[in-house]
Amino acid sequence: MIELLTPAEMGRADALAIAGGVPGIDLMRRAGLAVADACSRMAGHSGQVLVLAGPGNNGGDGFVAAKVLRQRGYRVEVLLLGDPGRLSGDAALAFSEMQAARLTAGILSQDTLDRVPGQASVVIDALFGAGLSRPIEGVAGEAIDRVNGSGVPVLAVDLPSGVNGASGEAMGPAIRASRTVTFFRLKPGHLLLPGRQLAGRVEIADIGIPASALDEVHGSEAGKTWRNDPALWGPAFRPPCLDGHKYARGHAVVVSGPALSTGAARLAAGAALRAGAGLVTVATPPSAALVNASHLTAVMVRSFRGSGGLAEMLADRRLNAIALGPGAGVGDETRALALTCLAGERAVLLDADAITSFTAEVEALAGALSRRTGARAADVVLTPHDGEFARLFGESAVGASRLARARAGAQASGAVVVLKGADTVVAAPDGRAAVNDNAPAWLATAGSGDVLSGIVTGLLAQGLDGFDAACAGVWLHGRAGALAGPALTAEDLEPALRQALAEFFSRAG
Ligand SMILES: NC(=O)C1=CN([C@@H]2O[C@H](COP(=O)(O)OP(=O)(O)OC[C@H]3O[C@@H](n4cnc5c(N)ncnc54)[C@H](O)[C@@H]3O)[C@@H](O)[C@H]2O)[C@@H](O)CC1
Ligand SMILES: Nc1ncnc2c1ncn2[C@@H]1O[C@H](COP(=O)(O)OP(=O)(O)O)[C@@H](O)[C@H]1O
Ligand SMILES: [K+]
């Protein structure tokens, strides 16, 4: 279940299920039942539940849940936003079924606000879900503030009200839930921030939408979107075969910065080796050769002079993946080195200073990418954090969601873009994208990004394509961070990566 559906795609999946013979009210009944089940788990055997219901189908799910919970013996109060007479379709039907079960709804207004959250031990947030179309205002916003301020646990239906399901952005006031029940598949907004944090623990309920609906709707609009998970890239990442030798697993190169900034390249090189590249060489300017050589053992060291020297080294076609950027220094020299890397037929990863060296000149980078030839022409990965992204692509994309920005960056550059952060997004120029959610905040530490660059480069050296290498690298980096645990430093990631890989390969069989 790694596919992510936008609210619009989810609406089409609903419509397809209904057209295929599953009545909409049945979908709503199953949705409401799943919400009631989750609420029972939160509230225990008895208690008081407040259901805040909105004017659309999200409210409809709330009416079903309210009815079921009342039948189970909970004390249930329903406050409806708007006029019951304006409910329509399945929501109106669910409302009348709730009334038939002797449960009436109050109207959410200034007069009833003091009942929010009242004595409730759980609040069910069924105000708005996939249909949120503008920031929440007025009494609904006040109710949300009261619920958030109360500390009473909240169960959100589909999405925390106020969160945009496509982007994860909070449109005005937004519910802070401890749990969310959503249906069929996750939406990007469940994984992107702040949506992920506002949703709490998310459960996916099967409401009877056939899997075949997925083939028709997933990615029919702006490209396919997934949760970043081994199910996405695992098949492309195989352990070494029995008769394999190291040369079959590629030879990665990491370009070092000058004498006083070499650590970043060594972190990356160590990670590339640990990620499984057969051989790794640090390409170093002569001034830094001694410091690099005195710190490296399994990783080899070769010195080069300027972009001409690097080009000579890269005449060796066995060097099949190269990383440039960590500690490289910003300016014309790094830019020339980047163009030298891109001119060859190997996979390339550009990070940090290599990205900043193209500030506001994405066309120059895109031009170099478009001239690439050979089987690995498309295997170029950029790994900017938000600041580096804005430098390269300009401010025009600022304001769009991180998912939309990463996609726009990939399209503008022709590279796979890894937009790093707590909710790292990997996007390919053809519109495919994956949202990562396994990284602990402890990963935000100096040198962590250099390790990520190394992991991805090690995977590129083993032959994974740009998108798979980037997704796998980001996931393994996050998993290594989780295994290394609190107070980790970048140096701790390499040994933890070994454990992450062991876990991955043992599960992959
Ligand atoms: N058959 C279906 O389509 C199913 C839908 N389901 C539920 O239906 C939800 C989607 O239903 P809807 O499309 O009706 O959307 P919502 O119920 O999320 O909201 C739509 C309604 O809210 C209004 N609205 C939007 N933003 C507003 C704002 N900021 N302030 C005030 N009013 C606002 C709209 O005009 C519309 O009346 C899902 O989130 C899910 O909970 C589930 O019942 C499963 C089946
Ligand atoms: N709050 C966070 N939670 C999880 N991961 C994070 C968080 N903030 C940053 N990261 C990750 O940490 C790494 C930091 O990389 P980067 O910004 O390049 O820093 P550095 O240059 O110091 O290595 C990235 O992989 C990023 O995705
Ligand atoms: K909701």
UniProtKB/TrEMBL annotation:
Residues 229-504 form the YjeF C-terminal domain. Binds 1 potassium ion per subunit. Its EC number is 4.2.1.136, 5.1.99.6. One of its GO terms (biological process) is nicotinamide nucleotide metabolic process. SUPFAM superfamilies: Ribokinase-like, YjeF N-terminal domain-like. InterPro entries: Carbohydrate_kinase_pred_CS, CARKD, Nnr, Ribokinase-like, YjeF_N_dom, YjeF_N_dom_sf. Belongs to the NnrD/CARKD family. In the N-terminal section; belongs to the NnrE/AIBP family. NCBIfam families: yjeF_cterm, yjeF_nterm. This is Bifunctional NAD(P)H-hydrate repair enzyme.
